[in-house]
Amino acid sequence: MESRKKSILCVDTGVDDALALCYALSHEDLDLIGICASYGMATVPKTYSNTKHIVNSLGKGDQIPVYMGSEKPLQRDREYSGTFHGMDGLGNQNLPDISGDATPEESVDFIVDSIKRYGEDLQIITTGPMTDMAKVLLRFPDGPLPGFSMVSMAGAAITPGNCNLYSEANVMVDPEAAKICFESGVPITMVGLDVTRKTLLTEKELKVWQGYDSESAKILSKAVGFYLEAYRVHHPYLAGCALHDPLAVGVAMHPDLVTTIPMNITVVTSGEADGDTVENLDKVAEEPTTKVALSVDGKRFMKDFYAHMDAVLR
Ligand code: RIB
Ligand code: CA
């Protein structure tokens, strides 16, 4: 099963976002009409620049527009540790700033215009904090909601979080935004840690990419080397680093990669479980709008992912 909707990819580039970008930009099954880069794993000038570097390195700079997203969460402060992605988002390789005259939140207008133009033929893939999408939804306060759908790398249903026992990083960075999105009624496929921890990149694949001469292979090899080392230290049980964001792109193209359960989801925004994605008991009797991915055909996904990455990086 394939999906040929128009797609917008909202990233916070980020090492695995960079992988997701390469995969998305190289795939014949994705009709990508634009990319939005917000703050998230680094500041927005950095994530935007990183995104442009990846797009340019693949020779797509003239083909795919990149819009700058939000600078910070809706209500909270954002501090950066650099633990998994480096302070620059790509493993501390500090590529030149090419953010130019891009301005924060220009992404929101682009997404709103695309929703009005394409309606249910549009899907929005988010692989970072859901701040931009919350701002988009706040532009439609009275509904009816436009017919677009989302595929989001967000949350943890059964598996433990990666910030603490409860929360996944993209949700934890801006829980209020994630809550707006999940409670909005927009159909969302939640590609959370329950499935993304089952799709891994290892030293073996990195070694192959390190042997390639292309600019994109050089950028990604450095970034992935840093990411793998962080996983080795902080998540040694995984024996690799998780392909969180590429899997969201994979599911957007091929929804049958995952099996899902229907549920209405909300987000805890205070206390010990701050940032947890849980069933919305206020809507337990209503038609569910979120599909929560609980299992994945990891072999099929990784075969397709590595084949496309190999073709684009060599
Ligand atoms: O929890 C994993 C998510 O956090 C991924 O999107 C990764 O890029 C980071 O943003
Ligand atoms: Ca990300």
UniProtKB/TrEMBL annotation:
Keywords: Glycosidase, Hydrolase. One of its GO terms (molecular function) is purine nucleosidase activity. InterPro entries: Inosine/uridine_hydrolase_dom, IUNH, Ribo_hydro-like. It comes from Bifidobacterium mellis. GO terms for cellular component: cytosol. Residues 10-303 form the Inosine/uridine-preferring nucleoside hydrolase domain. This is Inosine-uridine preferring nucleoside hydrolase. It holds the Pfam family IU_nuc_hydro. It comes from the Bacteria. PANTHER family: INOSINE-URIDINE PREFERRING NUCLEOSIDE HYDROLASE (PTHR12304), URIDINE NUCLEOSIDASE (PTHR12304:SF4). GO terms for biological process: purine nucleoside catabolic process.
